[in-house]
Amino acid sequence: MSSDFEGYEQDFAVLTAEITSKISRVPRLPPDEKKQMVANVEKQLEEARELLEQMDLEVREIPPQSRGMYSNRMRSYKQEMGKLETDFKRSRIAYSDEVRNELLGDDGNSSENQRAHLLDNTERLERSSRRLEAGYQIAVETEQIGQEMLENLSHDREKIQRARERLRETDANLGKSSRILTGMLRRIIQNRILLVILGIIVVITILTAITFFVKGH
């Protein structure tokens, strides 16, 4: 499991390094090359998001006791992804301003005002994105706590079941012992009754013998 995660990590590191390099080159490229570069960066950002999703799924499969370290790394990668998206938005805003200036012939002040307005909107979107990410992280941590509680309850249930099985075995052994003791007591009583009967027969035999002996004389 961890080897798959580390493989995704390496792919993510290589991909983000390429994206960072390309974003920094966007403002300096001619219009035609800029358009192609923007499309290329958008595609790679989508690939990076898919990698993050795969990594997130891998983290959820890791046992809770080992998950903390990977969760911290995921938070770092998501922050890095958010920074890349912010930088790309800014580069696209600059690119869009240049395209509008070429097509519409706007003056410099209008372009600067539009750019400031777009940057302000971008910052608002970033703040909203950070709040959503924080909410998502809380939900993930809550899910982890829930899973740990379920596992603990499962262990406790197994212990209770084992204790019940031991009690059943003990009851069965006690029942068997009780039956054995009852049988032994029954045999003892029977033996005593036989001894009493034999004693009575012996006494009667002796008395009879004495009676015949006395009559004979």
Automatic annotation (TrEMBL):
Biological process per Gene Ontology, one example term: vesicle fusion with Golgi apparatus
CDD domains referenced in this protein's UniProt entry, alphabetically: SNARE_Vti1a
Coiled coil: 34-61
Transmembrane annotation, as ranges: 193-214
Membrane topology per record: Single-pass type IV membrane protein
Pfam families cross-referenced by the UniProt entry: V-SNARE, V-SNARE_C
Keywords: Coiled coil, Golgi apparatus, Membrane, Protein transport, Transmembrane, Transmembrane helix, Transport
InterPro entries: GOSR2/Membrin/Bos1, SNARE, T_SNARE_dom, v-SNARE_N_sf, Vesicle_trsprt_v-SNARE_N
Subcellular location per the Swiss-Prot or TrEMBL entry: Golgi apparatus membrane
Purpose: V-SNARE that mediates vesicle transport pathways through interactions with t-SNAREs on the target membrane. These interactions are proposed to mediate aspects of the specificity of vesicle trafficking and to promote fusion of the lipid bilayers. Involved in vesicular transport from the late endosomes to the trans-Golgi network. Along with VAMP7, involved in an non-conventional RAB1-dependent traffic route to the cell surface used by KCNIP1 and KCND2. May be concerned with increased secretion of cytokines associated with cellular senescence.
Family: Belongs to the VTI1 family.
Name listed for the protein in its UniProt record: Vesicle transport through interaction with t-SNAREs homolog 1A
